[in-house]
Amino acid sequence: MADKEHILVVEDEEHLAMGIKYNLVAEGYRVTVCGDGRAAIKLLTDCRSDIDLVVLDLMLPGMSGYAVCESLRAIDREMPVLILSARTLSEDRTRGFDVGANQYMTKPFDLDEFISRVRNLLAFSPRRGADRAAPRVDRVTNYEFATAKIDFETFEVLVNGESVRMTQLELTLLRYFIENQGRVIPRRELLENVWGMPGSISTRAPDQFIRRLRKIFEPDPAQPRYFLTIRDAGYRFVPEGETDPVE
User: Is 53 left (phi over 0), alpha (psi -120 to 50) or beta?
Assistant: First the structure.
């Protein structure tokens, strides 16, 4: 059916690719399998409007998954990307997020968790999931606070007049804070709405990314005034700055 969501699986291990395809098709998705990075980029360049999500291996012939993701981000900033890799080191995860991945899972993986992550990425994708997701506030396109100026359409960020490079995921998290400013946001909500992950998953990803935001925007990251951690409750963005922050 034409209205089925279309997933591109970029995986050179044929038996694994076929297994992933079988299970995704069983969940009602359309699936295309591609075995190398350069062919994947050609597909994404020619047909990206018909593809809703990319499941991407890192160790591919001809062109690494990192390079594929980076090339994709040059032409499409909103395509959901789930890296599925045997690489387990923290620096591999960090590099994956830096080149624009939305999520990172290691092999071997739990099938139910994988399907859940796919479902959440599609549900909260700005490409096709917006109509199915819960109502949200109007999209912020330009925003200023403290010494920062952010343009979410051009991905330009200035702090103290100097250009700062931010990853797509960092910008997505920043935008979510801005659109929910002043409100305490539980970790579970961030995992579901920013990372597209089940909120029950145990991960330090929100803490790591909030530390990045503090490093970029806070005058003193060790004493945050804008991006606050509210103990046992979640996180809070205060654009005017908190004079006596609660940590």
Answer: beta
Q: Which domains does the chain have, with CATH numbers?
A: 6-123 (3.40.50.2300), 142-237 (1.10.10.10)
Scanning the chain, the segments in alpha helix (DSSP H) are 14-26, 37-47, 65-75, 90-98, 111-123, 168-179, 187-193, 205-217
Tens of pLDDT, residues 185-233: 988 888 878 877 666 677 777 888 999 999 999 999 999 999 999 888 8
Phi-psi bin for 232: left (phi > 0), alpha (psi -120 to 50), beta? left
Assigned token pair, 184: 């305490």
Number of H helices, E strands in the chain: 8, 11
Longest CA pairwise span in the chain (Å): 57
> CA–CA separation, 91 vs 36, rounded Å?
23
The tens digit of pLDDT for each residue in 134-188 reads 444 457 788 999 999 999 888 899 999 999 988 888 888 999 999 898 889 988 8
Tokens of 229: 């951690």
